[in-house]
Design a protein that fits this description.
Largest sheet: none
Low-confidence stretches: none
Structural class: mainly alpha
Order of helices and strands: HHHH
Number of strands: 0
Number of helices: 4
Length: 109
């Protein structure tokens, strides 16, 4: 709980009428990030995946997640570094000419 007290200042104030605490939400987000699983594959012990996803998405749009992770980096609680960027064929489009396809050239007479 002492660790959570260190990061709680970067999270929105918890309302009394919510079923999922900020701590539960952070743990669920970190689980998905660490394991690379889909939200639907989140273990039920973290709570309803849709509720977690919805609130995480709201935090993302409101800038809460950015502020949260920037604060943790400043305090040296976490270290995030971009090491690689990957592009695949679904995100980069090329024409058949660039892929080495045979060209239909007519012979000159």
């Amino acid at each position: 709980m002492k660790q959570y007290e260190k990061i709680a200042k970067y999270l929105p104030r918890q309302r009394d009428n919510v079923s999922l605490s900020n701590l539960q939400l952070v743990n669920a987000i970190l689980y998905v990030a660490e394991n690379g699983c889909k939200w639907r594959a989140l273990p039920k012990s973290y709570g309803n995946w849709h509720t977690i996803y919805t609130r995480m998405n709201q935090w993302s749009k409101n800038g809460v997640l950015q502020q949260f992770f920037e604060g943790l980096q400043e305090e040296d609680v976490i270290r995030i570094r971009m090491e690689a960027i990957c592009l695949d064929s679904t995100s980069v489009s090329t024409s058949s000419w660039n892929r080495g396809a045979e060209k239909n050239e007519k012979p000159s007479i």
